[in-house]
Amino acid sequence: MNKLTLGYTLIEMLVTVSIVAILAAVAVPSYDGLINNNKQKSALNTFLGELHYARSEAVKRSRQVVVCPSSDASSCSGTNWNTGWIIFIDDDRDDTRDNDEELIRIAGALEQGLALSTTNDISDFIRYRPNGLAMETGTFTLCDPRGSDLAKAIIINATGRPQISEHNATGDALTCS
């Protein structure tokens, strides 16, 4: 009767560990790309949804709606869209939120590593008229650490319709600063 010994030799174990290490070295960079793509798509789709929401609220309520960057979640603050934004009904059409004007949506800061930049004409705010037309047009560019080659844009045209693009409004390549 032969005794069967169970176990692995040192060489078998080293070969197995080597194969696992090689597979991990190949998979990790792909996984990082997948994570970055998902972060970017999530932020892009969230912001696109906010713009569609603001436009539809302007039409639904027959009032001017403003989307602007906000660091305090209650008033417009400069041109830094990375800190978050608010959407409000601009009853007096002065492009700033007064305490009596309804705040209809608040968004927090973008995830770390993402940056949202704009063209000058939409750096402070976007106003939607009661008919859904935008009073400003321009391009939002969303960048991540991978740079300009993988940046995405949201273009707002004269009809107010925001759309995702891989180029700016003039068809040129996107740039990240």
From TrEMBL:
InterPro entries: N_methyl_site, Pilin-like, T2SS_GspH. One of its GO terms (biological process) is protein secretion by the type II secretion system. Residues 43-160 form the General secretion pathway GspH domain. Keywords: Cell inner membrane, Cell membrane, Membrane, Methylation, Transmembrane, Transmembrane helix. It is found in: Cell inner membrane. It is a single-pass membrane protein. The chain crosses the membrane at residues 6-31. The keyword Transmembrane applies. The keyword Cell inner membrane applies. GO terms for cellular component: plasma membrane; type II protein secretion system complex. Pfam families: GspH (PF12019), N_methyl (PF07963). Belongs to the GSP H family. This is Type II secretion system protein H.
